[in-house]
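Lab notebook, bench 4. The sequencing result for the construct came back, and we need a structural model before the next group meeting so we can plan mutations. Quick request posted to the team channel:

Model the 3D structure of this chain.
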Amino acid sequence: MEDLEAMAAALEASGDFRVYRRLLPRTEVNAVPSGAKTWRGLVLDVETTGLAADDEIIELAMVPFTYGRDGTIFQVGDAFDRLREPGKPIPAEVSELTGIDASMVAGCSIPPEEVDAFVADADLVIAHKADFDRNAVERLYPVFRDKPWACSLSQVPWKDEGFAGARLGQLLNSYGLFHDAHRAGDDCRAVIELLARPLPKSGVSAMSRLLEAARMESVRIWASNTPFEFKDKLKARGYKWIDGTPLRGKAWVIDVSDDKLEDEMAYLRSEIYRRDSINLPLARVTAYDRFTDRAVWI
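Done. Here's the predicted structure in token form:
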């Protein structure tokens, strides 16, 4: 190993090569200060039969860790990682991407009582695409409905910090690391490593920025009946298309902070609806209902 590190150092010193090191699991990131209060986070990832709302979970992984109020990550615990046999065949492209095939999941299940026990004392659940993962697990495991959630993809200002993209592989590569992508447990450990590291411009940890965003209340704007020709414009601005809920029809939806609400409404009036007066449904959103269709309508 020492010889390999010497070779890697020599390549990097030349200025003509960039060396990526495999991400190795850690059980301790920082020592816990004596008497410090800690919280228990869970990083969660699922592999599914597809990306549609009715696709099924074939792997669920959760990796617990402890953290301080300022976002310092301390200890990383043992993973919960289970396979599940779906009610329909796993598509070939999913097996190729994840390495999970029918023979691996045959007869496997993920009992709700095991999930309940593992999740019970979690103070925060984190996923790298929480709007997908949260809805996927809540369909099978209601315990997740009562937990606050955060998203390491959308709630860390990766672009503002100089990163070219926010996919796990891209982010790890920026820190000189790589991992075995598209297996849920490995992706969870990758997220924890990224959250523990200082961001290049602000110097604070990504976990610190994530907690700031998770603790903040926001307002959800439900922009329905928008002209079709502006769909790409809305998507580029961060709106997400929702196919509808029992209470609301189809719409482009975005969550904004209170101080940006009026600016966003002004944008919709001038650039999308092209009229001075609009009356759109608004909802109050917290970490307990963020990334779901549940919200407290104002």
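The chain is about 30% helix and 20% strand.
Will bring this to the meeting.
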